[in-house]
Amino acid sequence: MEHHSNIVPWQLLTERTGATLRWFGLTDDGRLDLSAVDELITERTKVVSLTWVSNMLGTINPVAEIARRAHQVGALVVVDASQAAPQLAIDLASMPEEERPDLMAFTGHKVVGPTGIGVLWGRRAVLDQLPPFLGGGEMIETVRMERSTFAPIPHKFEAGTPPIVEAVGLGAAVEYLGHLGMDAVHAHEQAITAYALEGLASVPGLTVLGPTDAASRGGAIAFEIEGVHPHDVAQVLDSRGVAVRAGHHCAKPAHARFGVQSSTRMSSYLYTTPAEIDALVDGLEYTRSYFKLG
What is the mean pLDDT of the chain? Predict the structure, then answer.
């Protein structure tokens, strides 16, 4: 169920190192199949990387459970929190160490911030061991022609002039969410997602991809309407002022697992209202009538 950004880099790494890439399967209701977790995560495993919340299926994954297993065999845990950070109250400091990711990242534009910037959180011991991946100004301690030494974290990972404007914008966004309270944001997301799932269930021929229980998923809901291509669904909805996304949402393997080439996806957030969900459902009913689906 991973976004391509949590697949392709690992493929590139295996090509460079000769490591083997293995993955969890998916159950029919869009959850990770953990039945073979002990065969997948073994003493040979070096890194376990997964999304906290799927951007296509909406599934909230059991990060703590998987982290415990990975840490038992000495593997590092990397978590993509791009869909989790906007809607879950994440408190890494209060998590037991064996359940905590070693590295976690999320992108700024998912937390009402600007594009082009994100956050990488990591355990100090891990970040201290990681070598710099960029070279330039600011990330060095001393430069000689023979060799250089590098500044402590976080500076050793931030070569050159940083994206100052984006950083200020991201800081303002995080402060804004903190003022709202992530518990309140999460409660709204759960309520609006439940309302959306109920509305989508009323549309004949519509199938939701992923869990249909709002308590175990996020607000991004991908679906298909039998007999109508997702891009046609999106175009008709757009003509009625309803914005959705159509395509594979940078999750082609997940679509292939469910036997669909692409899907339509609605995404709610803290500003989404029940009236907007009603407009979506009305638009989907209109789409069915437009294509004469009975």
Answer: 96
